[in-house]
Design a protein that fits this description.
The complex is a heterodimer. By secondary structure, chain A is an alpha+beta fold. Chain A is about 25% helix and about 30% strand. Chain A folds into three domains: about 260 residues, no CATH class; about 140 residues, Immunoglobulin-like; about 80 residues, no CATH class. In chain A, the strands form five sheets. Chain A has an eleven-stranded mixed β-sheet. A five-stranded antiparallel β-sheet of chain A has the order 20-21-18-24-25, with no helix packed on it. Chain A is globular. In chain B, a hairpin with a 2-residue loop joins strand 2 and strand 3. The longest helix of chain B is centred in the C-terminal third of the chain and has 28 residues. The chains are: A alpha+beta, B alpha/beta. Chains A and B meet through strand 16, helix 10 and helix 13 of A and helix 1, helix 3, strand 13 and strand 14 of B. Chain A: Pfam families: Gpi16. Chain A: This is GPI transamidase component GPI16. Chain A: Keywords: Membrane, Signal, Transmembrane, Transmembrane helix.
Chain lengths: ~625, ~625
């Protein structure tokens, strides 16, 4: 009995722990969604989700959740984190709405926003934010440490926490920073993959290859950490990390041979000529517009096939890859089992653990119907107009393609050296509901401008304002001073129709602001030095030539001084009369008046003497002449 | 102290009063001589690529093969489109651009100048660099009609082929804008104006639509001018056009890049200002220099690239010349390589010179070497002005006895007391004349304001009446100084003050202008140089000679002479129309400098000479 209880204890403990493991979701799933886009592009969305119970997180017990990131979050008391690395542009006119309503992408470069537990203090969140960006900078090999106070803003309406923060929510502070100039490249991908449980060695993450990912027309790597409290798990909260990579690849460009990626002119036999043209001949070929989607295989598009599955506690119904093509299109898949679902356009594949997975699709003469794509919630462009080095103006165009009015939040985070003139803020054809504005402080804080706007149905709204360009100190210029300075993209959140939580995001492209730049070259320094020497030399010579040298007693009192003195005396006299005036004072005033009366006549004499002449410096010359005459 | 004593002693020297005219003459001679020295090896330099990032001609160019077949088809298509009405033509070009995967848009524009209307549409497309971040852009230009009003068949076809070819590369760090304006001058102007503004409110003289599609900051523009017809025409060399509006120049690195790629990589000879044969002799260098000065001083557009330069977008035009063995593919590869080089730029072109004079495609004079020429010329006016100012405050009898020797004449003497010392000095030497500034200053201001009347006439009359306006201006200009001199009787001192003020203003304006448009300052300085030497004289012969020299170098006469010498075929009317268009549509300062700076100074010179006649009659 005793023995059995003794024996059963560890067993029950083990069972208990196992039970908690299974019940508490230390889970990991990964998924790839493929969708061919018009103009021979392919959209691929990789999603890797890992969770850990909050209790395990707090006791530093991790299975799939990356420990390196978790420790940073714990140390900086970051409750929710969103980090984005983006390059290129999503072509929403050809490809339609952004994937996942733009919620898993960022502006060009790096974008980071997080809810930090402020502890009720004003300075603490900033310190924690600073620690966070510096730690993440090291973790992701990105210049995130350059997100200092001048690049940090606190958006009011733009973002809302995605996680369940419960009672903590009130104490959280949102901070947001962008680095538009950051070039995202392989050194950011490698640490990104290192956070995954399979570390890019198995599963769909093996498809992520720097050469192909960064040759994409658009790509966005995202990391989202948030606490989720599901009722299903008995109310226990888990911390969820979603790592996602969303990319739009050009199929012809990705299908090129990896060892010879140069787009040489095609062989003439491979060019489709328009034979209806009268001049079509052996040396003249009018190319037909290419509308077909070329044949593609997963292994060529991503450089190599997926190497087996990342087989960690998958349930039997889970699938790794979804391909969204019309059901009549032939697809050849190897190394996976196809799972059929009632959906007509989606095919699901479950990777087998050992063999490599590949998909191949033949050329498709009738590509995706662009009309079938979702219309984007909003089209937004932003430009800097104006020229010269002093002023400019910002010009944002927001187009609502829908038949209903849109309410949106528009946010700009401007560097301090771009100084907007708020009185010139004009909004055409729209209604400004609210304006949140934090003015910039030189070298301390950037401008934060957030507007809540309503745009009428099917119309275009323009938002313009003028700005002034600051002159920087010469040490504040970067080494490539003449390139200009990047201005972070504007972020637009289109609020959902019913006005509730959520909404979709659209970001404009980043901008290049040219500031007055000094010439840092050697000739410039030489010119400055020579000009100084010449100015000194000229100044002293000019001085000698034009100044008349007189003795101190010869200097006539300035007529202005006389006038002032007379005025002062007059005032004094008046005051004296008013107060009745004792004798001493009036005497003194008389004496002064006499003096001033004398002064002008004296001055006149002297100036006459001078005007007669020839300035006193001539005295020696005159003497000489006089001698000659006599 | 010794130096100051000497300088002070020099102040009263009579020699100084006579010096200014000689100094002015020396300045003019030095200015002219300076220019003549510039073509020598000692004063000019071999061009070099200054910006390391450009790496001209370091990449292999792949434009060729099946692209040639496509080019031929596009050339045929462009020819076919040229036979169609304007709308169908633009639609055709837009379709080709859209089929090549570009984002397309168009912009209509209209100008109204001197009763003439210029209408057209800019058709353009953007190759969005697949990995670019939309912050920068470069422009490939091919105007539908080139600067000589020929249809640019091959240029447009080549640009279309290149745009299609470029869109396949993923190496672009900047977007590429392909712009096809209807004409070579006003289309690019309207486009670049609209690109840099939110909207341009329409005025009576222009109506430009806003651009529906924009990219980032413009870095450089390259225009192609290749008017060969549908069956092609091989060329012998490339003429590189680089003059911008108002004499602004593109960065020398851009020009050097094009020259080094064309001549170094592709073996195509490069020329400047249509000097087909250049033996690199002194005479040839001087003639290219003179052509450069002429186009720069006129400041008008010389090609589709000109409009970009005032916006600090470096731009050049590659124009095919002659009959040789280079074909369109060579030009295509040059363009490809130039774009690859611009694409390499990390910063805006800034490393090399913005102020230079070219002697041939690979020899230049830098600003430090040539600027003194115009400055010295401007200095000749200032020197005369200072001399006249000093004289205006003196009795003119003083100078002669002092110079001739005082002892020979009987001089009234006066005692001067200074403290305890006493001295006997000639009475005249201590008398100064009160300078009467009011009348001269008012007259000067009035004449400057009057200058806006010919300016207004020359820019707002109709095409038919422009020539009449000039004749009228000439007649009035020649009569005005005499009538002013007869109505406003100036004393000797007033005349000197008037001339002094006018010359000092002219000198200052020309010196300022020299830093902006060197050539214009130099040419105006040379033409106006007699103004520094004319004096009020009681001798009627001298007055007549001075009046004649002034009449010959008067602004209206210069316009006639310019037309006779440089544009004998075009006719005066056409020249005046071009000048008016330059002012109203292109914003060229030339007419303002001529009528607002030079003409008033010339009228003042005439008044001074005329007042001599009046004083003699008195």
């Amino acid at each position: 009995m005793h023995l059995s209880t003794l024996l059963s204890l560890p067993a029950s403990l083990a069972l208990l722990t196992l039970a908690t493991v299974y019940a508490s979701p230390h889970s990991y799933t990964e998924h790839l969604h493929l969708l061919p886009l018009p103009q021979s592009h392919l959209h691929a969305h990789f999603n890797f989700t890992a969770t850990t119970p909050l209790s395990a997180y707090e006791s530093s017990h991790f299975r799939y959740f990356p420990r390196s990131l978790a420790q940073i979050l714990q140390h900086t008391r970051t409750k929710e984190l969103h980090l984005r690395f983006t390059t290129g542009r999503w072509d929403d006119e050809s490809w339609g709405a952004r994937p996942l309503d733009g919620t898993r992408e960022g502006g060009t470069g790096v974008e980071l926003w997080a809810w930090v537990d402020g502890g009720g203090s004003k300075t603490v969140p900033e310190e924690r934010w600073s620690e966070l960006v510096n730690s993440l900078s090291g973790l992701f090999c990105a210049s995130l440490n350059f997100i200092d106070s001048t690049k940090t803003v606190r958006p009011v309406r733009l973002f809302e926490p995605e996680g369940d923060h419960g009672s903590e929510k009130g104490g959280l502070q949102l901070l947001h920073g962008m680095l538009p100039h950051e070039v995202v490249c392989t050194e950011n991908l490698t640490p990104f993959l290192k956070l995954l449980p399979c570390k890019g060695k198995a599963g769909i993450s093996t498809l992520l290859d720097g050469h192909k990912l960064f040759d994409a027309t658009w790509q966005s790597m995202a990391i989202d950490v948030r606490p989720v409290c599901g009722a299903a798990d008995g109310g226990e909260c888990v911390l969820e990390i979603q790592q996602s990579v969303s990319m739009a690849l050009s199929i012809p460009r990705s299908m090129r041979d990896r060892h010879d990626p140069i787009p040489r002119p095609a062989k003439i036999e491979d060019v489709q000529c328009d034979e209806s043209k009268p001049w079509n001949g052996h040396d003249t070929c009018f190319p037909n517009a290419v509308t077909d989607e070329p044949a593609w295989t997963l292994s060529k598009v991503f450089g190599h096939a997926a190497k087996g599955a990342c087989d960690l506690e998958r349930n039997d119904q889970a699938f790794d890859v979804t391909l969204e093509v019309p059901s009549d299109r032939p697809v050849n898949a190897t190394g996976a089992s196809e799972l059929t679902f009632p959906s007509t356009t989606r095919r699901h594949y479950r990777l087998s653990a050992s063999s490599s997975f590949d998909l191949s699709l033949p050329a498709c003469p009738s590509p995706v119907n662009p009309m079938a794509l979702f219309t984007p919630p909003l089209y937004a462009t932003r430009q800097i107009a104006g020229h010269g080095q002093e002023r400019g103006s910002m010009h944002t165009t927001l187009r609502n393609p829908h038949a209903h009015p849109l309410t949106l939040v528009y946010m700009e985070s401007l560097p301090w050296y771009l100084r907007p003139y708020m009185h010139t803020l004009r909004l055409s054809n729209g209604k400004q509901e609210k304006l949140y504005y934090t003015p910039a402080l030189d070298r301390e804080r950037g401008t934060h401008l957030e507007l809540v706007l309503t745009i009428p149905a099917q119309s275009t709204t323009t938002l313009t304002y003028d700005f002034e360009k600051a002159v920087l100190r010469y040490t504040e210029y970067p080494p490539d001073a003449n390139r200009g300075f990047d201005v972070a993209p504007a972020v637009v959140r289109v609020l959902s129709e019913h006005g509730g939580f959520g909404g979709s995001y659209v970001r404009t492209t980043s901008l290049l602001l040219s500031l007055p730049t000094p010439d840092f070259s050697m000739p410039y320094n030489v010119i400055i030095l020579t000009s100084t020497v010449i100015a000194l030399g000229f100044g002293s010579l000019f001085n000698l030539l034009t100044r008349s040298f007189v003795l101190a007693e010869e200097v006539p009192p300035s007529p202005l001084a006389g006038i002032i003195r007379r005025a002062r005396d007059a005032v004094k006299g008046l005051l004296g009369k008013k107060t009745g005036g004792d004798e001493k004072e009036s005497k003194a005033a008389d004496a002064q008046a006499g003096e001033t009366a004398e002064a002008p006549s004296l001055a006149k004499e002297r100036t006459d003497g001078k005007a007669n002449g020839i300035a006193n410096g001539h005295a020696d010359l005159r003497e000489r002449k006089a001698r000659v005459v006599t | 102290m010794a130096l100051s004593a000497r300088l002070l002693a020099l102040r009263g020297s009579p020699f100084l009063y006579k010096l200014p005219p000689y100094l002015s003459a020396l300045c003019v001679l030095v200015g002219i001589g300076w220019i003549l020295l510039l073509p020598l090896n000692e004063y000019s330099r071999q061009t070099y690529v200054s910006e390391n990032a450009i790496l001209p001609g370091q990449v292999h160019t792949y434009f060729g093969g099946s692209e040639h077949n496509i080019f031929r088809a596009f050339r045929q298509e462009v020819y076919a489109l040229s036979q169609q009405p304007e709308d169908a033509r633009q639609a055709g070009i837009l379709k080709i651009l859209a089929d090549s995967g570009l984002k397309t848009a168009s912009q209509p524009y209209a100008y109204q100048v001197a009763g003439e209307s210029i209408n057209g549409t800019n058709v353009y497309g953007i190759v969005q660099g697949p990995r670019a971040d939309a912050t920068e852009a470069m422009i490939l230009l091919a105007a539908w009609r080139n600067f000589d009003d020929q249809i640019n068949y091959s240029g447009v076809a080549l640009a279309l082929t290149l745009a299609r070819y470029f869109s396949r590369w993923s190496i672009w760090s900047k977007d590429i804008i392909l712009l096809i304006p209807s004409d070579s001058t006003y289309g690019p102007l309207a486009w670049v104006d609209a690109y840099h503004s939110i909207s341009i409110p329409p005025t009576s003289s222009r109506n430009i639509s806003a651009l529906p599609l924009k990219a980032g900051a413009l870095q450089a523009a390259v225009a192609l001018d290749y008017p060969a017809g549908p069956w092609g025409q091989r060329f012998s060399s490339l003429d590189i056009l680089y003059d911008g509006l108002n004499g602004a120049l593109p960065n020398l690195d851009l020009l050097n890049t094009a020259v080094s790629i064309a001549s170094g990589q592709m073996g195509i000879a490069c020329t400047l200002h249509d000097h087909a044969t250049h033996s690199d002799s002194y005479r040839d260098r001087l003639s290219v220099l003179a052509s450069g000065l002429a186009t720069q001083s006129l400041g008008h557009a010389t090609g589709p690239h000109s409009a970009f330069i005032p916006y600090h977008v470096d731009a050049i035009t590659l124009k095919t010349v002659g009959d040789g063995w280079h074909d369109e593919m060579s030009l295509g590869r040059v363009t490809e390589s130039v774009f690859r080089s611009i694409n390499n730029l990390l910063e805006h072109l800034h490393q090399s010179f913005f102020f230079y004079i070219l002697l041939n495609a690979n020899r230049f004079v830098s600003v430090g070497n040539y600027l003194p020429a115009a400055m010295v010329l401007a200095g000749s006016f200032t020197t005369s002005a200072l001399g006249l100012w000093v004289l205006s405050g003196r009795d003119d009898v003083l100078v002669a006895p002092l110079a001739g020797g005082l002892a020979k004449q009987k001089v009234e003497m006066e005692t001067v007391k200074l403290g305890g010392d006493m001295a006997l000095v000639p009475k005249r030497s201590v008398q100064t004349i009160e300078r009467e500034l009011f009348v001269p200053a008012l007259l000067l201001l009035g004449v400057h304001i009057l200058g806006y009347i010919p300016l207004w006439l020359m820019t707002s009359l109709n095409r038919e009446t422009l020539a009449l306006g000039l004749h009228l201006t000439t007649a009035v200009s020649l009569i005005l100084p005499i009538s002013l001199a007869t109505t406003i009787r100036l004393t000797r001192s007033q005349a000197q003050i008037l001339q002094s003020l006018s010359l000092i203003l002219l000198g200052a304006l020309l010196a300022t202008l020299a830093t902006l448009n060197f050539s214009l300052a130099l040419v105006i300085g040379l033409l106006a140089s007699p103004l520094a030497f004319v004096r009020r004289s009681s001798s009627s012969l001298l007055t007549a000679a001075q009046a004649l020299s002034l009449a010959i170098t008067s602004p209206p006469v210069a316009v006639y002479a310019f037309q006779r010498v440089f544009y004998p075929a075009a006719g005066l009317e056409k020249l005046l129309l071009e000048l008016a268009k330059g002012w109203s549509a292109q914003g060229v300062w030339l007419l303002w400098v001529a009528w607002g700076v030079w003409w008033p100074a010339w009228v003042v010179g005439g008044v001074v000479v005329g007042s001599g006649v009046m004083s003699a009659r008195r």
